[in-house]
Amino acid sequence: MDDRSFVAAQDFLLASKTYWTKRIYPELKKTYETAAGAAPAPPETPAEVAALLEGEVLYRYFSWLERHLQRFKYAGRYGLVPYHDERRAALSAELRDTDAELAPGLEMPNYYQRVDIHQHPGGVWSDELDGYVYERGARSTTPLMGAAHGDLHHRFTDLVAARGGAKDILDMGCGFGKSTHPFCTSFPTARVEAIDLSGPCVSLGAHDAQTKGSGNVRFRQMNAYETDYDDGSFDLVTSTMVIHELPPREIERMFTEAARVLAPGGRMAHLDFYTIDGPFARFIHYGHGRRNNEPFMQPLAEMDLHASLTEKGFTNIEVIPFKEAEGVGESGNDAWRFPWTVIMAEKMP
Ligand SMILES: C[S@@+](CC[C@H](N)C(=O)[O-])C[C@H]1O[C@@H](n2cnc3c(N)ncnc32)[C@H](O)[C@@H]1O
Questions:
Q1: What is the architecture of the domain spanning 151-347?
Q2: With a threshold of 0.85, does the pTM exceed it?
Q3: Cα-to-centroid distance, 103 and ligand 1 (Å)
Q4: What is the domain partition of the chain in residue ranges?
Q5: Model confidence over 256-266: pLDDT tens digits?
């Protein structure tokens, strides 16, 4: 397949997603508000919202688009998987000489193997080109709202940097390094360790870091809740869009591990999906988790993070909604967006 056809098809999918989020979602919300207004009592739970909406053609159309636009992105004639497969020899050669530290025998947790996360066939870890497929797919995951979505990671890093410096940083679940590189540039004198279960992703992260000349980072294939770092070896532990991919028991283990590797007084900062306003937003978010093969979104949203972090010895816990880009969430902008949330805490001194 030629590049032009591939790019055109992927752009079409992104435009369709933009239509889905900016046009279909606000219509669905209006339909819900009308139905809720006519109901004997306002819905209080996602199940009550489901009872009102699941029979609606508009809701089915919304759900179908959400599930299948994402599926088309990967598969089919112009999908990410066949496109990269055709370029396998050249792409795999690019990854051959990276200094990523791979762990070929690393056990992949059950939750990680059982679900094709984001509908990515085989997940982000089972094929050597998965880092590339994930990287290209990330560019059309969230429709742009007038601002570059890449800014999201920088906005988060800026927020963390505004709270203070750091010398030793651990990025848990770094993927192909999109969350790591802003930390490398915002904290140029820090040592940055970037870890992920996916070998293909850390390989691409290391390749890009070499290309960009980021000398202060090391990419390693490792489980975030079972690292080999010494106690107290970091003053900042971070993650971006990772927690919601783990079941609650593994989230607890990840926080316990973060507490262990942080020095006393060190801090943690995570960007994820957590604070959700009202039963309709919950219904849509939980449905997104099901439709996009992200089964642990709902369990995370129902966890008591404050209690969990307090129990592990964290203090100054903050759970704050995060604006992904200027203008998003303001009145007149009714598009569906993820419930971005920053979770920050400090290890007791
Ligand atoms: C949505 S991606 C986010 C990647 C990156 N932080 C970013 O912002 O682009 C989630 C990442 O978490 C990784 N992951 C999931 N469970 C993990 C675990 N137990 N340990 C390390 N990484 C994990 C996945 O392999 C994936 O790369």
A1: 3-Layer(aba) Sandwich (3.40)
A2: yes
A3: 16
A4: 151-347
A5: 999 999 999 99
